Amino acid sequence: MPATIRDLLDTALAAFDALALTAEPVEDEWQYVRDLDTVWRARLTAVAGARGEEPGGPEAERAIAALAAEAGRISDPHRAIDWLSTLPQVALAALGESA
Amino acid sequence: MQFMEARPDGRAVVYAHIQADALVARLGELLAAATTLQRLLGRAVMNGESTEADTWRAMFPALFGAAAPPPGDEGRERSEAILAASLEVADRGEQTRSQFRGAIVEAMTERLLAERTTPVRRERRILFDGRPAEIHPYDVTVERDGASEAWDCKWGARGIKADVLHQLDDARRGAAEEGGRLLVGLVVFDARRSCEVRLVRERGPVALEGLKLIALEGLDRLAGRRPG
Known about the structure:
heterodimer, A: mainly alpha, globular, B: globular
């Protein structure tokens, strides 16, 4: 069964959660990590609410899979903080949405 | 208000070599001419782990997929060139890539500003009558009577810190006290949404007062173009 936009955003959010966990050891940036989580989760959830039942399409499916796999390779906590901002932007772009 | 060369120190000497690297110049030029999505590609690749170009092509279907401009098209060739050059940066190791990324944002900013106005300079200090000068130079300046500008360039929103904001505010106030005008701002190679949450935490709800913020989506404004 083809993935819906909601399925793809669920995949992106799972990768986002994993990045937040990787970033956790940087105590000085705890608040910033929380703030990124708040604003980007809200943006991705809003897209899921508006377009969640639409089929994602094979290219978007491949894009989100590649993006989640790339996020999974990030093991450095500082790099993970940078990716907490990058991942949602790339996910939104793959779905034809602005940041 | 007077613009001056930065004092040469050890950091400046090392950094000057990075700024002069051909790869920095190439990416500065490519990103200045790029679309927002192409700039996001550069940000992701230079921040990433994968060195396989096809991994990144898959992640950006609007640039490389079925509906993207075909090979040979100017936009497609630029996407490929940004991908290749960004992979070269990513391949240089963590510390080097971090220095390169900062220099690339400065090089891009210099080119964008130069499309709109002159003269544009790099690594300059600003002196005000009767005040000690800030030690750290401003990354990019426009030194034009009555319409001068001072920009600090950051790779990511995380680079927005209290000392950076203080230095920009200080320059703006210094110019105003002399009856002059100095536009001060931050150029951040990151999403505006991330920059805004950072600014609010660093400075409170009046975060943007007197400060221009140019984020990834709005970089074309530096050149006087509408964001594309």
